[in-house]
From TrEMBL:
Protein name: Calcineurin-like phosphoesterase domain-containing protein
UniProt organism field: Sphenostylis stenocarpa
Matching Gene3D superfamilies: 3.60.21.10
GO molecular function: hydrolase activity
PANTHER family given in the database record: INACTIVE PURPLE ACID PHOSPHATASE 1-RELATED, PURPLE ACID PHOSPHATASE-RELATED
Pfam family, one: Metallophos
Domain Calcineurin-like phosphoesterase intervals: 4-105
Transmembrane segments: none
């Protein structure tokens, strides 16, 4: 039997000047997992001469400051993500991360280890 979701839970696409690395937020992506290995390979294998833009996409957001949706559940952060992925984003110089799930819009200055890096005054993401 064909199950689309189980076959395509994470993948990468090269489109013109862009490399898209798409992760599955419903499965563990902490260091050492198969998904973490996939994400690292996806980020590491891009040819920045051909695809200078490296974009990470996922469904559930890793942390944000303006919506109470997760606060009602007791957390503003996705439990298995931010700390492990930040190292990869910095190492491979990811340009943009895009998420869905919460139906609100939020954008920030660059963030590293839950603090803004270029905004003034600096702020902290929950």
């Amino acid at each position: 039997m064909f199950h689309f979701y189980t076959l395509f839970t994470r993948y990468s696409i090269d489109y013109g000047m862009f490399r898209f690395c798409i992760a599955d937020t419903e499965h563990d992506w902490r260091e050492g997992t198969e998904q973490y290995k996939f994400i690292e390979h996806c980020l590491a294998s891009v040819d920045r001469q051909k695809q200078p833009w490296l974009i990470f996409l996922a469904h559930r957001v890793l942390g944000y400051s303006s919506c109470i949706c997760y606060a009602e559940e007791g957390s503003f952060a996705e439990p298995m993500g931010r700390e492990n992925l930040q190292k990869l984003w910095q190492k491979y110089k990811v340009d943009i991360a895009i998420y869905g799930h919460v139906h609100n819009y939020e954008r920030t200055c660059p963030i590293y280890q839950v603090s803004s890096t270029l905004c003034y005054p600096p702020f902290k993401v929950c």
